[in-house]
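FIELD: query
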Amino acid sequence: MIKAKREPNTKDREEYKELKKEVQRKPREDKQKQIEGICEKLEESNKKGNMKQVFQTIKTFTKTFRPQLFCIKSKEGEKITDKGMIAERWREYCEELYADNEEVEKEKTYTGTREPAPLRSEVARARAIKEMANGKSAGTDEVPAELFKYAEKTTLDKMHRICTALWETGEWP
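FIELD: result
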């Protein structure tokens, strides 16, 4: 329809107006059909009691649009659009930002006494773990957050051993 509207043989003003109305009306109808289809799926999910799917669908409709940044300037002021080059530029920027930082050097040469390792009770009452939302996907370690959130004695003991080892060696297990 768009091609027909653009063709030079539509010199008839009335025909052009009709094609223009049709070109504007058709996408609106398609969008309305898509929204109705999503609403039907939403109602089905609600009937089945799948509230997670219901809230995810509602969130897609109500969240505000946030455009992503795909262009930054190089040191020379040129625009960079390639993702790899953008990542490289951010790396350079961060290195420059922290290159002459005196506080970082002081931390490296600190020779004071260390604090004691974390207590088991501190691991058990960590606020970050307790405030985690349920139903989140597991991270790269494939361990669900609920395991730590509702941990019993054995899990807390193992978590405390991991935290203590990390504290003492400074290396991730």
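FIELD: remark
The radius of gyration is 29 Å.
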